[in-house]
Amino acid sequence: MEDGVTATQVVFWILAVVMLVSAIGVVTAGNIVYAALFFIAALAGVAGIYLILTVEFLALVQLLIYGSAVVILILFALMLTRARERPQALFGRTRPLGIAASLGLLAALIGGIVATTWTTPATSSAIQSVGLQTIGDAIFTIWIVPFIIVGVLLSIALDGAIMLASPDEDEI
Amino acid sequence: MVLSEFAGISMPNWIDALLRVIFIVALMTINAFALIYLERKILARLQARVGPTRTGPMGMLQSIADALKLVTKEDVRPITADRWAFELAPYMAFVPVFLVFIPMPFTETWFVRDLNLGLLFVFGVLGLNIVGVVMAAWGSDNKYALLGGVRAAAQAISYEIPMLLIIVAVVMVAASRLAVDGDASMAGSINAIVGDQTTTPYILLQPLGFVIFLVGTLAELHRPPFDMPIAESEVVGGYFVEYSGMRWGIFFLAEYTALFLLVLLASSLFLGGWNWPFGADVGLGLQIVLTMVKTSVMIVLVIGSRALFPRLRIDQLMAFSWKILLPFAIVQVLANGIILAYGGPDWVVGLVSFALLAALGGLVYYLTSQKKGAGARTVQTRPATPRVITAPEVTPVEAGGD
User: Fold this and answer.
1) Which residue, of A11, A84, B169, B203, has the greatest Cβ tally within 10 A?
2) Which residues contact B177 (CB under 8 A, 6 or more apart)?
3) Are the beta carbons of A64 and B127 separated by less than 8 Å?
4) What is the pLDDT of residue A149?
């Protein structure tokens, strides 16, 4: 902030406010569809932060995956709950458990942030842009084993979903 | 804001950015007017009618009259509709489509921005407009709207996957070709892909890709034969059934703009975009004409399909994507990978893709020509009572309810 407010900082603060407001909206909106829509806004804010950090690829993947995935989430919310009849259906007997889990996650994240030694770049403009090719090389050479494991895990989840959703008879 | 940040336009250039935005908005409007007129005329011809004739010469001002009617019409909101979701949905559906104009190349040097990740940008941003559709469907508090919106979401997400895989296949071909005489890392840029097609349009290298992309385009746009989300005879117009006036107009504008954009993308990726066929170099003036001619041919195809094909059932549509298009797209990606990794020449790539296309055509013909519709039987799901796996008090009747 010493050397004046740059456009990037303005954009960052706008995005930060949007993300914070939407994140609070996600947990406070009684209506599950509103919560999902706030969730989309929060994730779009994260995509904007990625753009500021000049990792366009991550920003686009964020939109592509979470945009579609959250729509699926809304659909499940519509199908599996009576969102319009019981707006407060989000809060049930498991509420203390949820509070404990979220507080634990918060503590873990804050611990992680505090424990990390943050390096300040020498000049603010010297942020290294990570190319798409670099990401691709890293995923498909260095991290190929975790990549495959994640792929297998997702396939198992998909198969399980199909198993659960298919009719009882072995006719598909 | 995001636009300027992404495209790297610095603040003093805000006039430049504003001009580009104004240009795109004007283009969108004129495009929608022209396409609505064309659609009515082409459909009329195919159905032995004449279409609009009264307003203006040959009825050409019909779209303007329609727009005036829409603007002056009362904007009605059902009293039980969810206010925020209902009123914001048209814009949520419109803005992503608008943003997709950014990486589109009209000539070698005419585009808003040549993005290195242009192809991913198109699909990443265009996919968001389904959020607007679902908002409209849910916010309307109308069973037909909800059914249409759920269909639209299922359809869009299913057909996005084969389309994205085909894009991967195209980028693989483009990257290997650009590596010879260009920069392979630019293969995600639409303009670079078009620039590589001076002598060989990619429809010769990836004919299967072209067909799958075209089918996916029809599905993404809710065009017949894939118009279940907006089918009048089934869901009374689908997710925008409760909209009237200008909000309905915005949905329509988004739809026709998406039609133009996806078709422009297809003609850029597969038909060579602004290139003169087979490499005769021409000046800038003709490039825009070539782009538009190729796009127009495809638009006529898409519009004509509305009069030529009957509507499918929703389960047939989903099964066609997941059980036929997706495996073929995966095989295409694998085949490209194997051929290109061993340095196979271009004609092998094209031949394999042609063979796959022939196999796809043969399979579809076989499935649809069986007695009693074997194609339908393989995809038919029993109207069984769904097994409810959540809270026990939710019965299927309530789960699908209002």
Assistant:
1) B169
2) B196, B346
3) yes
4) 94
* Residue B346 CB coordination number (10 Å): 15
pLDDT digits (tens, 9 = 90+) for A15-73: 999 999 998 888 887 777 788 888 888 888 888 888 887 777 888 888 888 877 777 76
- pLDDT score of B169 more than 50: yes
- Residue A72 contacts B where some CB pair is shorter than 8 Å: yes
How far is the C-alpha of B212 from the C-alpha of B203, rounded, in Å? 11
* C-beta atoms of B394 and A84 within 8 A: no
CA dist A39 and A27 (Å) reads 9
Identify the closest residue of chain B to A51 by CA–CA distance.
B6
Residue B24 DSSP label:
H
Whether A163 contacts chain B with CB within 8 A: no
Alpha helices in chain A (DSSP H): 7-28, 32-52, 56-80, 95-115, 132-137, 144-165
Residue pair B52/B40 in contact by the 8 Å Cβ criterion: yes
Cβ neighbors of B67 (< 8 A, separation 6 or more) are B33, B249
Q: Which of B5, B13, B88, B123 to mutate to test the interface with A (most CBs of A within 10 A)?
A: B5
* Residue B388, both tokens: 């409810």
3-state secondary structure of A91: coil
Determine, for residues A68 and B125 on separate chains, whether the beta-carbon distance falls below 8 Å: no
